[in-house]
Amino acid sequence: MMEQLKTIMPPPASPVAAGAPERWGQIEKELGIRLPRDYKQLIQTYGAGEFGGYLIIHSPFFGDGDGNLLHECHNTLEFYRDVRQRNPERMIYPPFPDPGGVLPLGRAIGGVLLFWVTEGDPDEWPVLLSDPGAYEEVHHRTVTELLTLAFTGALESRLLPDDIAEEPLAFVPYNDPVGSG
After folding, report:
1. Containing H/E element for 141?
2. Is the pLDDT of residue 179 over 60?
3. How many angstroms separate the CA atoms of 148 and 143, rounded?
4. H or E segment to which residue 114 belongs
5. What confidence tens digit (pLDDT) does each residue in 2-16 have?
6. Which of 6, 44, 45 is nearest to 24 (CA)?
7. What one-character-per-residue DSSP string does 37-68 give?
8. Alpha helix locations (H) across the chain?
9. How far apart are the first and last CA of the chain?
10. Residue 62: burial class (beta carbons within 10 Å; 0-12, 13-18, 19+)
11. Domain-by-domain residue ranges, the chain?
């Protein structure tokens, strides 16, 4: 799917905050969990930025604040816990690090959050789209598959707009914050 995604939305020549392969071990140690290989490849190919001007996938190598996977894990999980306490019937997954808990992955412009459901082998984690407190949907796809299907119009979702696959599609890299890479 990576090759198809690169065809429909070419990656930047010099990705911002793509990180070096040897840095993934430290990120995984800080999180306490192995991350999916497809996600690592996606970050190393695209870096930090917006897919189609609509979806943001967090990079652990992007600065220290918004958009950084480690920062977003803390803030987003705190928010998720609060909303889940008020709406347990709508938000069935516990927050990470609970077994099978959700781990923040990204977000869509407009408030939909993207999570991995950390069940089983990380390379097979489903992606959860969540409109906190309202509706959640699970896609048994890798993040690269989800992006490719979304931007080809083949993803069935109540949470993503139907026109997400309209042209022109582009990946827009973020500005390089001090200390990223």
Report:
1. none
2. no
3. 9
4. strand 113-117
5. 999 999 999 999 999
6. 44
7. HHHHHHHHHHBSEEETTTEEE-BTTS-SSTTB
8. 2-8, 24-31, 37-46, 69-86, 143-152
9. 25
10. buried
11. 2-155
Looking at residue 112, what DSSP letter applies? -
For residue 120, give the nearest of 134, 104, 100 by alpha carbon: 100
Identify the CATH assignment for 2-155 out of 3.40.50.720, 1.10.20.10, 3.40.1580.10, 3.40.50.150. Answer: 3.40.1580.10
Tracing tokens 């827009």 back to the chain, one arrives at: 172
Give the C-alpha separation, 150 to 180, whole Å. Answer: 28
96 neighbors 77 (Cβ within 8 angstroms): yes
Structure tokens at 127: 């992606």
Q: Is the overall model pTM greater than 0.85, yes or no?
A: yes
SS3 percent helix, strand, coil of the chain, rounded to 5, is 35, 20, 45
- The count of other CB atoms within 10 Å of the CB of residue 46 is 27
Quick: pLDDT tens for 11-50: 999 999 998 899 999 999 999 999 999 999 999 999 999 9
